[in-house]
Amino acid sequence: MVEPIFHTHAVRRLYKPDRRAFEEHLIRLDPATRYDRFGLQVSDEYLRDYAELCFKPGSLVYGYFEDHVIRGAAELRVFQSRTRPPRRDGEAAFSVELPWRRRGIGTEVMGHIVLAARNRRVGELTIFCLRHNRAMLALARKFESDLAFERNEVTGHLIARPPSAISLLREMVDNALDLGTAAMDYQTRLLRSGMAP
Ligand SMILES: CC(C)(COP(=O)(O)OP(=O)(O)OC[C@H]1O[C@@H](n2cnc3c(N)ncnc32)[C@H](O)[C@@H]1OP(=O)(O)O)[C@@H](O)C(=O)NCCC(=O)NCCS
Fold first, then answer.
1. What average pLDDT does range 54-66 have in this prediction?
2. Per-residue pLDDT tens over the stretch 69-102
3. Among 86, 135, 159, 190, which lies 20 to 30 A Cα-Cα from 150?
């Protein structure tokens, strides 16, 4: 087995060549997790189409990697609201595979999503959450200083704090590191598949 040369960080932004690994993460989700994540039962076919959509303009995805396999992910979709005047709104969603739960992965990927939403001046960030979903409600509560939630709802309103030089710089540095790590990941995958030169 090819050992990774270095781990800068386990969570990074995903790029188009990560689509397959992201899709595989979604397809590994058990039926209960799929239901909590999407609010209905979804097929593998649906998840493949969904994974494709996540790499279109207006969306960004972060993934938690362990041994080059994605075990947790968070997606952010940014769009124009229908309000007058229109503003920029967002929708976020999270998934962590069962054996990897309660290790702080959800918290880490959500931190990246909140930062990315702030830097894109998102006004309202919606996270659809079923009422019984105690894990998501607990996760959301950890971001109370950034997001305001209605009681019993998980539609977060990003507290209007404009991006600062530091928040923008943090994302820029993260992105630069992520690109480097992504390049290493692709090389490792190629080596493993025997396709490297
Ligand atoms: C919601 C989810 C992403 C959380 O992921 P996670 O990696 O387990 O989250 P963390 O380990 O960072 O835990 C975050 C907080 O929630 C709490 N928590 C996690 N699971 C919990 C549960 N089942 N019941 C109560 N609290 C829970 C943790 O204790 C933690 O708080 P703490 O740090 O104060 O202890 C994960 O449970 C999941 O994938 N659920 C299925 C999909 C889903 O529901 N997505 C949300 C809707 S889009």
1. 96
2. 999 999 999 999 888 888 889 999 999 999 999 9
3. 86
Count of structural domains within the chain:
1
Q: How far is the CA of 174 from the centre of ligand 1 (A)?
A: 24
What separation in Å is there between the alpha carbon of 95 and the centre of ligand 1?
9
Would 71 be classed as within a structural domain? yes
Q: Give residue 151's pLDDT.
A: 64
Residue nearest ligand 1's atom 29 by CA: 102
In a domain, 32, yes or no: yes
Ramachandran area for residue 104 (φ above 0: left; ψ -120 to 50: alpha; else beta): left
Question: How many CA atoms lie less than 13 Å away from 125 in the CB half-sphere?
Answer: 26
Domain at 168, CATH number: 3.40.630.30
Residue 124's DSSP bridge partners are 89, 157
Reported pTM: 0.88
The pLDDT of residue 110 is above 90 = yes
Q: Whose CA is nearest to atom 22 of ligand 1?
A: 135
Residue 50 C-alpha to ligand 1 middle, in angstroms?
22
Q: Is residue 127 part of a domain?
A: yes
Q: To the nearest whole number, what is the mean pLDDT of the chain?
A: 87
Query: Taking CB atoms and a 6 Å cutoff, what residues make up the pocket around ligand 1?
Result: 33, 36-37, 93-96, 101-107, 127, 129, 133-136, 138-139, 142
Q: Return the half-sphere exposure (C-beta side, CA atoms, 13 A cut-off) of residue 93.
A: 19
Measured in Å, residue 29 CA sits from the centre of ligand 1 at: 15
Could you list the residue range(s) of the whole structural domain that residue 113 is in?
A: 11-193
